[in-house]
Design a protein that fits this description.
With about 200 residues, the protein is an all-alpha fold. Helix content is about 75%, strand content about 0%. Helix 1 packs across helix 4, helix 6 runs antiparallel to helix 7 and helix 6 crosses helix 10. The N terminus is likely disordered.
């Protein structure tokens, strides 16, 4: 007779099942569907996450902690120059957006009607903006930021041009490849933010 799964392994099984289902079915994922996919009862899912919203928010954290996001973000932190850091921001989005998109799409849609999803989305966007703020400050310190921009406005521009919505429009709706997105976004960011007389 097998021993019962530990709480941690049960939680991970639920999260892995939920990620699979969201990637396959998008917005229509239910606690019952996740429970079936994980081979558990709905009560087990409820005990661990409390609600569909709680499960979705935990899924985002689970994906972040899987290592992929940390690896691509580390390229920004390890960049030798501000320009390299700006290019690394492009890589973060080109590499991580296709993986996280199914879950991000659920949060984007749900944030208008669910306060917990809204809070989770806003926390992630604030974290993202903080990263960009650091990169823009670095450009400014290296005297590479175009003189018409102040740091706050340039950060907002960077935040907007790397948004999920723009990625979705270009990659999902228009069919751009990952390489197209990376190449064109790099060009746009450099031409928009960087003083090429100094670069």
């Amino acid at each position: 007779m097998s021993t019962p799964a530990s709480p941690k392994s049960t939680r991970e099984a639920i999260l892995d099942a939920a990620v699979r289902l969201v990637r396959e079915r998008g917005l229509g994922v239910t606690l019952e569907g996740v429970a079936d996919e994980a081979g558990l009862s709905r009560q087990s899912v409820y005990v661990h996450f409390g609600s569909r919203t709680g499960l979705l928010i935990a899924m985002v954290q689970h994906m972040d902690e899987s290592g992929m996001l940390h690896g691509v973000l580390q390229r920004v932190f390890d960049a030798p120059t501000a320009l390299d850091a700006l290019d690394a921001v492009v890589t973060v989005h080109a590499e991580y957006h296709p993986i996280a998109y199914p879950v991000a799409r659920v949060l984007m849609a749900g944030r208008h009607d669910d306060q917990a999803m809204k809070a989770a989305w806003e926390e992630r966007m604030a974290s993202r903006r903080n990263l960009y703020h650091g990169v823009v400050e670095w450009l400014d310190r290296e005297k590479l930021l175009l003189p018409q921009w102040d740091v706050e406005t340039a950060t907002d521009i960077l935040w907007g041009l790397t948004s999920w919505q723009l990625w979705e429009a270009l990659v999902v709706d228009r069919g751009w490849s990952k390489d197209d997105y990376r190449r064109h976004l790099r060009t746009v960011l450099r031409r928009t933010l960087v003083d090429r007389r100094e670069a």
